[in-house]
Design a protein that fits this description.
The protein is α/β, with parallel strands linked by helices. The protein has 2 domains: about 1-145, 3-Layer(aba) Sandwich (Rossmann fold); about 165-300, Glycogen Phosphorylase B (Rossmann fold, 3-Layer(aba) Sandwich), CATH 3.40.50.2000. The protein is built from 11 helices and 12 strands. It has helices spanning about 15-25, 45-55, 60-75, 90-100, 135-140, 175-185, 220-230, 245-255, 290-295, 300-305, 310-315; strands spanning about 1-5, 25-30, 80-85, 105-110, 130, 145, 165-170, 190-195, 215, 235, 260, 275-280. It has a 6-stranded parallel β-sheet, sandwiched between helices. β1 (about 1-5), α1 (about 15-25) and β2 form a beta-alpha-beta unit. The protein starts with a strand and ends with a helix.
Length: about 325
């Protein structure tokens, strides 16, 4: 089977899909939009593109992306399947070309449609559409599938510190993270929380004084993974408009970490264990000492295997 994955692999999750496909003897092609993104050579080109977008409906970034995908796919005969993660990045012309080059078009979204409603305009190009959000799946008649465990550690003696970890973008979740940080400080429980703001200017005023680190650059996937492995507790704050389980949940599962989360729907999953997962109310946060100081209880392998990236690939591609 020959499959192309087209995605904006900004956070580095999608490369694990390619690795899983190759383990399953699939000829996998990854067109990584982020790694091959257009970069302005100078300020003049940036300004020129702004004028072209505003008055002539032309975007040099979109043109670059269209050419990248067409040139790459043109090197192959018709593919069995093309999987596109977040197709709203692609023009109708490019999606039409992908249809021409593939026997089956598959879409996957690991973000809520409320955050990017333009994605609805791409539905007509796909044979199957998957979403990680149960409510979106019901509302738009999509196929539901969770995110996946991309790395698993079975060594329970792996060196880890008594420390909570979170990394997230600067948004409406940040005040909640500050509250959690303050509670952990009062309980003398160490934490490493990182809030990333990639905008040039930061007008955010901290609500509570904490030891949270505020950064203006991304942290690499390798660095994040190392920090997760060396912590024993993770914090996951759900966006208010989403019900899907974030990758934080599956990192905690795969790496045997306790989890504090605001996602109430997690109680409906077969891996849920109140000893390992604490659900908190953002308006009234309570973190019991018992939860912080009891050991992690291992989740059975037969449950974890259902969420592994290789199982995810089998479901998406409908492999037996």
């Amino acid at each position: 089977m020959k499959v192309a994955l087209i995605s904006l692999d900004y956070y580095g999750y999608d490369k694990y899909i390619i690795s899983a496909m190759k383990e399953l003897d699939i000829e996998a092609i990854h067109i990584d939009i982020y790694a091959n993104r257009y970069r302005y050579p100078n300020l003049w080109v940036r300004l020129k593109n702004l004028i072209n977008k505003s008055f002539f409906n032309y975007n040099i970034k979109t043109s670059h992306l269209d050419k990248l995908i067409k040139d790459t796919l043109s090197n192959y005969s018709k593919l069995d399947k093309i999987v596109i993660i977040h197709a709203e990045w692609l023009s109708p012309e490019t999606l039409n070309f992908c249809q021409f080059k593939s026997n089956e078009m598959i879409a996957y979204h690991y973000d809520g449609i409320q955050r990017m409603p333009s994605i609805i305009n791409t539905f007509k190009y796909f044979d199957k559409i998957y979403s990680y959000d149960k409510e979106d799946a019901k509302k738009y008649n999509l196929n539901f599938i969770t995110n996946y465990i991309y790395e698993q550690v079975k060594d329970i003696n792996f060196h880890e510190e008594r420390k909570a970890f979170n990394i997230s973008s600067l948004d409406n979740r940040t005040p909640i993270l500050e509250k959690i940080a303050k509670i952990l400080e009062k309980k003398n429980y160490p934490y490493e929380f990182m809030v990333v703001n990639r905008r040039q200017f930061n007008f955010y005023t901290r609500k509570i004084k904490t030891k949270i680190k505020y950064l203006n650059r991304m942290v690499s996937r390798e660095q994040v993974l190392d920090k997760i492995k060396r912590s024993n507790l993770m914090v996951d704050i759900q966006r208010p408009e989403q019900t899907g389980l974030t990758f934080r949940v599956f990192e905690a599962l795969g790496l045997n970490k306790k989890l504090i989360t605001t996602n109430k729907d997690i109680i409906n999953y077969d891996f849920y264990n109140p000893n390992n997962i604490l659900i908190i109310d953002p308006e009234n946060i309570e973190i019991p000492d018992k939860f912080l100081h009891t050991k992690y209880e291992m989740v059975p392998d037969h449950i974890l295997s259902n969420y592994h990236v290789k199982t995810w690939v089998k479901k998406i591609l409908e492999l037996n």
